[in-house]
Amino acid sequence: MIIYLLVGLGASLLMALGLAGIVSSRNSIRMLLSSELLYNASLILLLLFSIMYPVQASLLALMVIVLATTEVAVLIAVIMLFYRKSKTLDVRAAATEEGV
User: If you placed Cys at 14, which of 1, 41, 72, 90 could pair as Cys (CB 3.0 to 4.6 Å)?
Assistant: First the structure.
């Protein structure tokens, strides 16, 4: 039973690191990686939840994996367009320019 507590604490730590990375980051690639940390932490918590409801939690975890991969594909395309237009990956510096 203690192993489940440790896994839950580890997932909570991952979630806190991802949230801190999103809030404190200026680089769009780093923000993308931090959001992936959030997705992975939620996936670990879903797999921990699958002990009680194995079928439902496994299907939900599969949906989270599919959602994470599509989110990465779309965000990489958006970041590439953002870089082409502003010539920087710094979100705050590009937001001060005109037309961005």
Answer: 41
> Which backbone phi and psi does 73 adopt, to 5 degrees?
-65, -45
Measured between alpha carbons, how far is 10 from 12 in angstroms, rounded to an integer?
Answer: 5
pTM beyond cutoff 0.70 = yes
Split into its structural domains, the chain has a count of: 1
Neighbours of 21 (CB within 10 A): 19
CATH number of the CATH domain containing 78 = 1.10.287.3510
Considering only CA atoms, which of 23, 55, 12, 18 is closest in space to residue 35? 18
Q: Determine, yes or no, domain membership for 48.
A: yes
Report the C-alpha gap between 100 and 9 in whole angstroms: 40
Residues present in the chain in total:
100
